Known about the structure:
about 210 residues, three-stranded antiparallel sheet
Amino acid sequence: MARVCPQCGAWCEEEPIDFTVPAVICPHCQYGEPFLRLPLFVITGASGTGKTTLARYLPERLPECVTLDTDILWGVLPATAEKDYVDYQDRWLQLAKHIAQNGRPVVLCGTTMPERIMGSPEHRYFSAIHILALVCDDDVLVQRLKERPAWRGCDEETQNQMVKFNRWHKEHGAETEPPMTLYDTTGVTLEQTLEDTRQWIYERLDTTE
């Protein structure tokens, strides 16, 4: 999976893929390095909808997968607004790709957009990309953000931005590519959210393996 071809030693800036194997093809010597092509699961949504909580408690209920909170590398990996943060998404997909070679699908929890995922060439390494977008009622979202400590910066402007983002998911989630599955966390217990999310993933593991 490295950009250095294990056969001829050449640096491969571009990585053509033969999806029938699947394998990464060296453009210099045509060597094909097989790789596991597993599904990728993404849990996104506005701040306050429950992504971080899922990232914290989902691993013990979903040992078949590797669940990661994508905020842990914010400020460490490149994240450029001019590139619509595709560079940040690209690094996370690279990491997920390499983790998947251990035979365990990856669940990424963090705010993103489908076009950022599909804008990275790394998305080709996954058999399917499934996106679960968490949403909730506007007043519930605002209350959750108000209850956060001051250092998190959830002022009125941020609250308004997150309400708009939350509404966007509700209005356009089914129109994106790939489409997003919406899950409303309003009035739902943590245990139920964890169980529903686990079941959502299991159903898609069955259909993509």
